[in-house]
Amino acid sequence: MELSFLAIALAAMVFVTTVLRFRQNRKYSLPPGPRPWPVIGSLNLLGPLTYRSLHELSLRYGPLMSVWVGSVRVVVGSSADAARMLLKSNDEAFIDRPRLNIGRYLFYNYSDMFWAPYGAYWRQARKLWHTELLSERQLKLHEHVRREEVKAMLRDLHAASSMGRAVAFRDHLLMLNLNVVSRMVMGKKYVAEGGSSVTTPEEFRWMIVELFVLTGSLNIGDVIPWLNPLDLQGYIGRTKRLSRMMDRFLEHVLDEHIERRRREGDGFVAKDMVDLLLQLDEDPDMEVRIQRDGIKAFIL
């Protein structure tokens, strides 16, 4: 009985999805693209390297094409003219990001600039990145960090190569980037020094790698929403687990910085991005407050 009910429900979902897609196709004059299957759309045409799959499809359907990714219609621009039309001439129409699970669970309900919906908060965040957090002045202030970390990497490379075995240059570049970003954003090297009482260097490195993996993975529930509660790939479970670990770590980082501000009093000087964000959150001239969750999302 239960199997019969599930079969009927699945058939109904497939039918409704197909009808809605047909109606939307009639309503809009869409660019050409592959004929979609019910429910999955053109997911069967997308391999593990999505950009290569889209490039191969663009050779057949042209530089501006439409592709159904599950239940989501995606317009793909694959030429300079198409990119200019989407990102410059009609940027306000295409500026919003999709509301994916990664932005909801890991980036504090879309509180960072990348996943935030277009509006006052997003405009303010972009302005802060340009004028405060990644301004030319701030980058020059941290030039010594980049120089010191490059020298440290070269010393490590020399020591490793002097042993007469192959060197995994990619691993050294990863550590260089993590150390530079960690010092510029949070004030010290959490990977190399293990300067946190709530995480080990190995755990911190794992969290960063997992962050990259999850943000670059396709969650089937994002493109076929009615499958989202089933979490077929375990994606949401992994994202929630990483979110808990990251939040514990970021709360520790914020508490460290707030304690240093309290301790130094009037002599306090901002040394890294977290210090700047805490100051900006207290600025009465800000149109929208960043708040604590927003600061943690900015750090990520």
From TrEMBL:
UniProt keyword terms in alphabetical order: Heme, Iron, Metal-binding, Oxidoreductase
Any one Gene Ontology molecular-function term assigned to this protein's record: oxidoreductase activity, acting on paired donors, with incorporation or reduction of molecular oxygen
SUPFAM superfamilies, per the entry: Cytochrome P450
Entry keyword annotation includes Iron: yes
A Gene Ontology biological process term: secondary metabolite biosynthetic process
Alphabetical list of Pfam families matching this protein: p450
Keyword Metal-binding in annotation: yes
Family: Belongs to the cytochrome P450 family.
Name the record gives this protein: Flavonoid 3'-monooxygenase
